[in-house]
């Protein structure tokens, strides 16, 4: 247990050996499940709990300060199980009232399988602990619909749940005492927060006029040195970057070269119509954060594959499965490919693009395994047609 501010204690648990979080998120430096105990003169509140397998260590940390039965409030900033996994065990040993956002009722019932009669709070609602006030700030979709922040004006501290967090574990708990975690901070944003940029900016607007000298997220380091530096990084990453041209990306998987020829013909049609085009052969393309940044900052995603055993080729699915961390709404999508006898791949790709909320204005394009000159001409014409959906009246192509 560590007192991070007067009457406010860190009671979280570290998991330095974790290497994969939630099945897909690599965590080279582990993670932490941060929880905070606020001991007021009249009442006591606990902010978040921990993942269920760590409940015993967590409960021990809390009981080093107060018995569980003395806790009056358990504030769940959102209900993902890595923050709410030990909630039911605290409730078994206390008469605490659960405090949640007004959108969190269903999630709480799913976790507890009963009605806990929670206290619902919204923007600017307050709870007094005597000498300490908890103010609540709604922060939906950061990154769950029910997320909220808690602010203590008497201590200038903001609790932000996953917002500004990192999957990172160190012997220290403060950013100014730990080894460098820059990569973990940025990677966390790109994997978790990137799809919700509008909500990031809305949340920053709600907190930017508050006196805050410490930010306490629910994963990773507590930000006590230059906390606004991290807020400003989120602001920069979430602010749309102006661009005076339209960009399309063409990806393809082509074992025998035919789909690659279609890709180049579609790209030529796009370029001839004033769209800036980049082409990627998925056989040699690394799907990393920089590529996802490029996709996010593009206006159209065009994906092609030959058909192999009635399906698209694996690198295509690897690309498409990586797009769940990007907001793809309003981008133009299109699928194409070659085939020898069945030809299902383009249709499967088209359906996936629609599932990702892209606008798919044209039916997928197919040609035989070795496209004819006529096929290539049709592909170029399709590129020109797609350009009509992509290009704006004042767009230009960069030199």
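Sequence proposed for the structure above (399 residues):
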């Amino acid at each position: 247990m560590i007192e991070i501010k007067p009457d406010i204690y860190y009671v979280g648990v570290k998991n330095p050996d974790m290497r994969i979080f939630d099945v897909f998120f690599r965590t080279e430096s582990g993670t932490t499940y941060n929880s905070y105990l606020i001991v007021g003169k009249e009442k006591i509140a606990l902010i978040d709990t921990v993942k269920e397998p760590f409940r015993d260590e967590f409960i021990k940390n809390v009981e080093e300060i107060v018995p569980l039965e003395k806790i009056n409030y358990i504030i769940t900033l959102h209900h993902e199980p890595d923050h709410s996994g030990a909630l039911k065990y605290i409730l078994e040993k206390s008469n605490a009232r659960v405090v949640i956002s007004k959108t969190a009722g269903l999630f709480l019932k799913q976790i507890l399988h009963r009605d806990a009669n929670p206290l619902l709070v919204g923007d600017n609602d307050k709870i007094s602990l005597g000498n300490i006030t908890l103010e609540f700030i709604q922060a939906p979709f950061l990154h769950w619909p029910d997320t909220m922040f808690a602010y203590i004006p008497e201590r200038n501290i903001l609790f932000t749940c996953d917002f500004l967090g990192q999957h990172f574990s160190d012997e220290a708990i403060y950013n100014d005492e730990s080894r460098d975690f820059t990569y973990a901070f940025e990677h966390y944003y790109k994997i978790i927060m990137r799809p919700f940029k509008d909500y990031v900016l809305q949340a920053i607007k709600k907190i930017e006029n508050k006196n805050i000298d410490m930010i306490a997220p629910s994963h990773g380091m507590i930000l006590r040195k230059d906390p606004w530096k991290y807020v400003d990084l989120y602001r920069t990453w979430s602010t749309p970057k102006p661009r005076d041209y339209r960009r399309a990306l063409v990806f393809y998987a082509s074992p025998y070269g035919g789909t690659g020829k279609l890709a180049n013909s579609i790209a030529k049609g796009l370029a001839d119509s004033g769209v800036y085009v980049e082409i990627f052969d998925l056989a040699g393309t690394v799907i990393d954060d920089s590529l996802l940044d490029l996709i996010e900052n593009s206006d159209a995603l065009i994906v092609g594959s030959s058909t192999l055993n009635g399906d698209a080729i694996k690198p295509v699915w690897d690309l498409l499965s990586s797009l769940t961390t990007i907001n793809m709404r309003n981008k133009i999508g299109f699928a194409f490919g070659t085939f020898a006898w069945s030809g299902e791949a383009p249709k499967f790709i088209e359906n996936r693009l629609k599932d990702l909320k892209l606008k798919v204005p044209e039916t997928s394009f197919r040609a035989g395994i070795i496209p004819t000159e006529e096929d290539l001409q049709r592909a170029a014409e399709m590129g020109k047609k797609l350009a009509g959906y992509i290009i704006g009246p004042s767009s230009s192509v960069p030199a």
